[in-house]
Amino acid sequence: MDSYDKNLFTQDILSYSKNSMLFFYDFQGIHLEHKPDHVKWFPAAIKFPFLKNHAFSNLLLPVLWIILFGTSLLLPMIVCLLYRPKVCLTSNIWAGAVFGIARKIGLCKTFICCAGDWLANQGRKGFLSRLVNNYLFVYMDYIAITTCDLVDSQSKPAHEARERYWGRSLSRITHHRHPPPVDVYPNAIPDTRTNICFLGQVREDSGLDLILPLLPELHRAIGAKLKIIGPSSIERTRIEETIKDLSLEIFVELYGFLPLSELEEVMKDCFCGINLIKDEESFTCLAACGKFIQYLQMKMPILATKNNGIVDVIEENNLGIIIEPKASVILSSIRELYKDQKNYITNIIKYAEKNPCLSIKDYLEIIEK
Fold first, then answer.
1. What is the 3-state secondary structure (H, E, C) of the chain?
2. Tell me: the pLDDT tens digits for 13-48?
3. pLDDT tens column, 147-179
4. Domains in the chain, ordered, with CATH?
C-alpha cells in the first residue's frame, strides 16, 4: 500500500536486497516502484477505472471488482511463476493467498503476511459487499494466514475476531505489532498549528457530515479549516456537494491522493487528525487504520470514535481523544486538542521512541527461531 510506511519499508527492503520487486497500491492502480535490472518487461503501473457517476458505477461494480481482485491475484501469480522469489511479503490478503499457495508448491521460499483487517463484520451492507467481505475475504484470508511462515498482526481486535470466527489460532507464528510502531517524520513542524485533517478514502460512515456544520464556529474561534485528503470516490463526491450546498468552501481545502513528499507539506499545519466512524459494523472498526499512524508520524493527536483497533493505545498513551459521534462532543474535543497540542506532541514523540519499527531481517530471524 502506498501509505505511511512506504519510505521506511522501501529503504528497509532495498538494504536487505537490491534484487527486489516493490509494488504499491494507491486506490488508482498498482505501481512497480523498484525492480532488478534483469526484469525488463513489467509495466510500471496498472491503472484501475473509476466512475464518478453513481448509477453507472453501481451498474458496473461487479466488473470493477473483478478487475481489481483479478489483478491482485494474477500479478503475484506471474511474479512467483517467473522469478521464484526467496521472500514474499504483502498486506494485500488476495495476493497473500497466492503467495501462500506458491510457498506450498515451492514457488516461494518464505512468505510473511501483514494482516491488519477483518472485514467479516458487516451486517447491513448490500449483497455484493457482503459476498466479498463476509465470504470471499474470509477464505482468502484463511489461505494466506494458514500458509504463511509468519503473520505480522497489525490489529489485536482483528486478530481476535479471526480466531473467534474459526474457533482456533490459524497461524504458525504470529508477531503482534501492537502497540503499532511509529516513525515520526523528521520534517514534522512542532509549532502551533491551526487546521484539522481528514486523511483517506471518504466512506458513507466517515463522519464528515458531523464536523462540516461546526466549521464556521471553529474558524471563528481558532481559525481552523478542514483539509480533506484522499482518493476520489462516490462518497467523496457527495461530501463535496454538501460543502457547496452549505456554502462551506472557504472553510474546507480539498486534495486528491498525494505522494508522501507532498502529503507532509499539506499536513504540516494541522494540529489534529480525525476519524469519526459512526457505524459499529464499519469496514474499518477492527483495523489499526493507516491514517492514525500517519497522523502520529506528523505529530498530530487523533480525534476518533471507538470504532477502531487502537482505542487502548490512544487512551493509554494520551495520543488523542476518543469520543462518541456527537456534534457537541466533537466541538469541545477539537478545542481541547488545539489548546493542548504541544503536550500531545510531546506524548507522540515519547510513544514513537518506545515503539520502533522492526526490519525485514528481524522478521526473518523470528521465523528462523
1. CCCCCHHHHHHHHHHHCCCCCEEEECCCEEEEEECCCCCCCCCCEEECCCCCCHHHHHHCHHHHHHHHHHHHHHHHHHHHHHHCCCEEEECCHHHHHHHHHHHHCCCCCEEEEEECCCCCCCCCCCHHHHHHHHHHHHHHHHHHHHHCCEEEECCHHHHHHHHHHHCCCCCCCEEECCCCCCCCCCCCCCCCCCEEEEECCCCCCCCHHHHHHHHHHHHHHHCCCEEEECCCCHHHHHHHHHHHHCCCHHHEEEECCCCHHHHHHHHCCEEEEEECCCCCCCCCCCCCCHHHHHHHHCCCCEEEECCCCCHHHHHHCCCEEEECCCHHHHHHHHHHHHHCHHHHHHHHHHHHHHCCCCCHHHHHHHHHC
2. 999 999 999 999 887 889 999 999 889 888 899 988
3. 999 999 988 888 988 999 999 999 999 999 889
4. 6-182+357-368 (no CATH), 195-353 (3.40.50.2000)
What is the mean predicted confidence (pLDDT) over 181-190? 80
User: What pLDDT does residue 42 have?
Assistant: 87
| CA angle centred on 262, ends 256 and 268, rounded to 5° | 105
* Residue 142: Cβ within 10 Å count: 17
Average pLDDT of the chain to the nearest whole number: 89
Rounded-to-integer distance, Cα 262 and Cα 245, Å: 29
d(CA 280, CA 239): 21
Give me 261's grid cell: 513528499
| The C-alpha cell that represents 189 in the structure block | 513542524
| Grid cell for residue 110 | 518464505
